[in-house]
Amino acid sequence: MNSEIHSLDQKRMWILLGAIFLTSFILISLEITFSRLLSVLLSYHYVFIVLSLALLGLGAGGIFVHLFRSRTLRGEDPFGVLALSTSFFSMFIPFSVIMLIQTGENLLLHGLLLFLPFFSAGLFFAGVYGLYPSLSSLTYGADLIGAAAGSLGAILALDFLGGLRVHFFLGAIASVAALALAINGKGRKGRIAALFSLIGTTLLLGTNLIGLYRPDMPIGKHPNKEIHEALSESSLKGRIIETQWTAFGRTDLVKYGEDPGHMDLYLDGTAGSPMYRFNGDPSRPDPPVQALKTTFPGYFPFLHLNESEKNHGLIIGPGGGRDVLLALMGGIRKITAVEVNRDLVEMVRRFSIYNGGIYTAFPNVKIVIDEGRHFLRRQKERYDMILLSLPVTNTSRSLEGFSLTENYLLTKDSIINYLDHLTDAGCLVVVGHNDAEILKLLSITLAALSVQGVDHRAAMNQIYITASKGLYNYLVFVLKKKAFEPGDSLLRYEAMLQLGLDPLSSYFPYIGEGKGLNPALISLSQGRMTIDQLEKRVEKSGYDIRPVTDDSPFFYKIEGGIPKPVSLAFWSSVILLFVVTGSPLLFWKGEMTRVRKPMALFTMLGVAFMVIEISLIQRFVLFLGQPVISMAILLFSLLGGAGLGSVWSGRLVRDKISRRIATASLTVGVMILCYLFLLPFIFEQLLGLSLLIRLLVTVLMLGPLGFLMGFPFPLGLRYLKETGMGNAIPWMWGINGVSSVFGSVITVVVAISFGFTGALLISVGCYLVIFLLFLKS
Q1: Which partner from 181, 267, 369, 428 sits 20 to 30 angstroms from 564, CA to CA?
Q2: pTM, whole model, 2 decimals?
Q3: C-alpha closest to that of 159 among 544, 628, 608
């Protein structure tokens, strides 16, 4: 039965486009909100696996429609069929979330629960494209424009509603789309399902809003979360006294029953940062604050500063204010502290009575909400000290759940930036968690200094390392802009011994063997070992300390090779992609040679779109300054532009579809190549502009790219219809969905090994394949 018999008058067409817009709005919102939810429930690297499994639901929905086309698309009530799938989509959203927070750590179960709403959405979109291929330019345009709006709407919804309630809200909105379709359909099933979903989701949202039903989020149960020990250790008697949940993440303040003099702040249950009880007097602070001078190695670099070296300090990631306290006690006269988490800063300010007004009462302390590297690159001022204390964020803030867990604070490029912003006698101070982190930072620093013409032996005279003893064994890494004098180094070595710090994990220039210091670092400083030899020696212990750059900023990927969660997701997506595209006899009964070209088209489009999306988000972080803003604005620009491009593609004449696909694909590939060369220059020239102007520039840069990226998919659907392969449209939607998951995984794999530039080159290759396939058609 030809699906085009389902004609649409103008009213029904607008109803359909409106339902597509809402469903796509909700779908992209779910990708964002689910990543936030999972980041609270799970250790951040497992988010990648669960989200990948969930997103496969989109492709699975298309395959299901193709295999059971006679039951899903045929009949006299297409709106009723679409209303059914949208009703299930509406109900599965809150159901999946409620079940998710009731279950323990079961990755497969989590993935299957979140698979359900995506599968229902896959049924809906595969149905739309299968029923109305002639309207593909409009339907795909509504799909993308809805996703563009959702990328911004999800951020606002998370800020206003929080990580749990937002899903009840999205479920209720989806039921409105289902009801609109059902009312304009003919069958009873669709109307009953839509009405049931509307009543159920609105009641759930209403009872939650008025407080009758508010499910508890089981944070702290995951043993790999830092907050787990704080809440589960009976001797600590920790309890959460305040929670703030926005698009950036969930920020919790934990108070301890025995009141050891500090409370802890956590982002998504990790990245713990203490907030100390402070009397407001840095010269005579409370005992817990005073104890930092001897128990926390981050204070060590302040001990022997000259007065001329105490004018201005920059703190990146001050958290609950510990580093600000160190700087105040160390005598720094002007302090600028840059924190990316606005919720954390607001929470510290609200507890100013407890913390002595560390962020409000000191006129010489300035708090800036920004990403650290982005802030630094926009400054012309130079600092006597730049301090980063335990700068790690083990939480996911990205759609695919992995790439944006890293930041740009510790790369070869960042070290060069830090040195450029130090005074002649200034120093960079980094407090790390363990030996592997510090050794990796050392490797990065030596690579950065090598770029500036400083060999490894000379560079080691600008560095010292020392470590505390005890439970946490934190290490401090200090890089001076100029070499230390031998007397200064000896003074610090003696202070290290007096404070009882760990000599074996320490290194001071000019202090040779026989003094109990790290022998490998001494050998490195004396030229008896190269940094390459040290890297290979550490690699035998299973750690990767090779330098990283802004193009591949995976500093906290300490383990060798590809991370296991990423590897598992990669091979799983490869197998699924092979099954869906490599076993066409299961899905196609027509002539095999005809279907190969569209299979390649929708595979390449799925991979390329995700590669471009993720890689460009990562590149724009340093330009815009906030990972969440970068993701939202980039998605809005790309998807909005692609939606307009899809609508415009409907104007193209029918007899040149293949040539238009080839032309659009070649143009996108060329634009990506141009972006690779031009973006660094553009960013450098425009970085000093206001945020509003930079956001506008981002939209203007990415909108045209998205516009052209919006052409091939709807033209491909029209190509299938014009060549008599309209029945394959749901299958191609499924291929595109599975390919998108593969694209997100391959982006991370390639970025770790070859950088995001290498990943973008893969997208260029995908569009080149499409160009060659359709050029002579």
Answers
A1: 267
A2: 0.88
A3: 628
